[in-house]
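A note from the maintainers: we've had questions about how concatenated examples are separated. There is no special marker in the raw files; a new sequence line simply starts the next protein. For clarity in this README we add a label.
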Amino acid sequence: MAIIGNIIKGVIQIKDTLTPDSNPVENQKEVLKSLLETAKDTAFGKHYNFDAILENQNPSTRFADSIPYFDYNKINDEWWHRLHQNEEDITWPGNPDYFALSSGTTGKSSKRIPVTEAMIESIRNTGIAQVFALSNFDLPADFFEKEIMMLGSSTDLIEKEDHFEGEISGISASNIPFWFRGYYKPGEDISKIDDWDTRVQKIAEHAKNWDIGALSGIPSWLELMLKKVIEYHNLDNIHDIWPNLQVYTTGGVAFQPYEKSFNALMGKPITVIDTYLASEGFIAFQARPETTAMQLVTDNGIYFEFVPFKAEYILEDGGLAADAPSITLAEVEPDTDYVLIMSTVAGAWRYIIGDTIMFTDVERAEIKITGRTKFFLNTVGSQLSVNKMNDAMMHLEDKFGMKIPEFTICAKEFEDGFYHCWYLGTEQTTEDTTKIAEAIDAFLKDANKNYAVARSKALKGLKVKLTSTDTFNNWSAKNKKKGGQVKMERVMNEEKFKTWEDFVNQN
């Protein structure tokens, strides 16, 4: 009998029963007030007169009117660069102990995003809230006695003067609560290995010693790790070595394109729970099994605003026009794409994280990630977002019996006009690309009226090429780094796409 598991499950259920329902809109009002109060004496708070915002009858409106949008480059050039000169009280009291390194999907030099003690506490508290939400998933008691494999970036952080640097998954793992360390795998020693291939090799070697009940990590890299374990031990599937694996906590990218290839590594179905952890904070997690949507964390150090995702508000580099209107959580509508804006306990203010989201349940503040502002393909008015691209890939998988976990696309000009050029990552590289292009085209015409209009005018058609998923993984390894928060860019400009095509041809 799972005695400890029953105790833990009982505590979680009692906590869930005793916790009163919260009001997301009221939570956000309190969070904004707390952020402004805490940061009013910082250089940023004085410059934008947080005292006056707090005294206003409608602080959220005054806040939006007083402070411009900031992307990383703008806030770093104007404010955060001073943190690296050992100045304090710039956008948040004190000086952060950590900086999260994030190259995102651009492949450029890493951003250095402040991670304060308040943000670490916020991430930890949200993680605990997610554990308590497991009471909704009806998991057996023995699940709570199993170990959790967290595949992130290295926890061997870079020490620089008075702070440490690393990816947010490494920073978070290096700050896990002491009571959780007995459950955490691959453990501190293996997690500190910087080289991803070496770390995965060590995981494969030790896999038989662990009783893994849950997995956590970005789908693409987690799949490679699972394949390595299966190959190393000559298994049919991962359940041959981890028979009690029951839960996968995914995040970083949409899981749907990876679903078929991921399930092919399983011996039986498992529960997939989506999360939304970024370098800027723990934003949302799936709180109930009836939906794949995630609940915004509205009461834990992050204030959200939302800009309607319309072409006229989006700049070519994925940023926002200065006059793009924002709304609060109280004003959002379901089934509408919004650009997500954040202000946080790490000193990010009206920060454009670069993601677009859609509310599936306004009352519960439940969302789905629909894409990236930089991956919004609007050449000749096609207005194609990543969620439509993902839907097209799922359609192909069903129609042709394929697995397509990776893809990238470019709007490229040829002599006779513009074409959408698709590269699909799949092991079924002998499929008829002409039929695949026709299937994508037909699906998108039905799914997106703007795309259909563009196809009747300047968008001449589609060109499709197939390559192995290893090509995508090798591209990421060459341009950035394997594992961690690294994600494949879904849309490329023509200059980047030429480099990509050269890389594919060479490999």
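[label: protein 2]
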Amino acid sequence: MGLQLGSHELLHVFSFLGARDLLCAAQVDKVWNEVSKTKELWRQLCVRRWSSCRAPQMTLGTQTWKQYYLCRSELEFRMESGRPEKDFTCKALAGHKGQIDELAYISTNECRFDGQEESVVCTVSSDGTVRAWDLHEGTEIWSSPLQPAALVNLVTYPRLKLVITVDARGRIKVWRAENGQEGAAFSLPAPSSALEACDHPEGPSLLAACADGALYALAVPRLELLSRVSVFPSSPTSLLRSPGCQWVFASSRNSDLGPKVFHTRSLLCPSDDEPPVSTTLPVWLTARACWAPGEAARLMVMHRNDGGVQLGITTYELGAKKSRDGVDILVQQVASFLLPDTMMPPHLMKGHGSQVILLVSGSELVLFTIHGLQLAAFQDHQRPITSVWVDQSRVVTSSFDLSLRVYVWSKEDKFPVLKSCYHLLGGSHRWASGFTHVESDSMSIVGVEARSIGTSILRSYYFQVQRG
């Protein structure tokens, strides 16, 4: 009789196997089957494949680690394949009587397969309402009462189940995500030019830029004023908060001043004697900017060169150093390059990881490293790209050609490789004029489809998992 391995020896051997080999081992006999189901084996496979599984707030639900691995693998396969009816269901969600100006997910971006998963988005419209939608069911959950002015922007706080909107007059309002109940309100002295949700360790807050160039920090959910600072006098300001919310980037195309970076804590906990801690970056004529999601404080800024002729991108690393007077901001240039003369000025810019920049120019999507090496260029759309959504797994673009394009990242090489997978088609060109926005979470993709009569609908694509 051959040597029989005990459970402990088998567990050690199985720890070197992948998922496919573990499933094969489970077919050998009862002992192998039991050992192959060991929780730690499948947990380690999940951790190696998905960094989110390392998070302490990771929600497993009623699933085992094995079930979670198999379900999530199937979901990723379906989102990469994109076969209509087999992999996803498409639904049109109508209700707004005006144009949808912005949308955002209020559900957390969790992968759950225990019946508790949900994909819920909120939208604001020129019709003066904010609405919540269940993408799986394809139904409207609630709609707010008609507001005095058109709603133009919103941010969401999935952890707090809150939605915050702002209207065309600068009126900010809080809404309960479960039922649309109204909460606190705050009025800016002029229309808002940007909103940023900030879930900072000091407490949740809202950053609102005003068309008069002032930046407001408000405590959430009561919208109490924490600070106000004039950034670019009389110039509408755009805002970008960093991953982790330690930094806030502010810029204005209508100002001769260079863009600024604020230390967020100094906005949320201001000193009576000192202005918020900030620094001005040594670039001018800023066109676009984005944070590198793979780094806590890496900022990429698109700007004109010294002659004001050619566009370039400079990457900075930010740091904070405590001093006798408080906090000093340290700015280190990491890389810089000029965009090709033949490239149309990009109108959209996103970051991926720590090294990759995605630029949209007309109908073309182009990838560069922060040092200027062009990695790829895609011309899948027939008309201009209107929006781009990026995460660790996928890129989705929307276009006036009435399609969404899905791309998938592969990290087998030195730099991430983006693979073009498939189109998601909208409605008829007779009734629709194209997609204007796109967002996604772990189980769904949703686009705003503009209609020819001046209204908008949502078109959702919900991906299904068959395994229990």
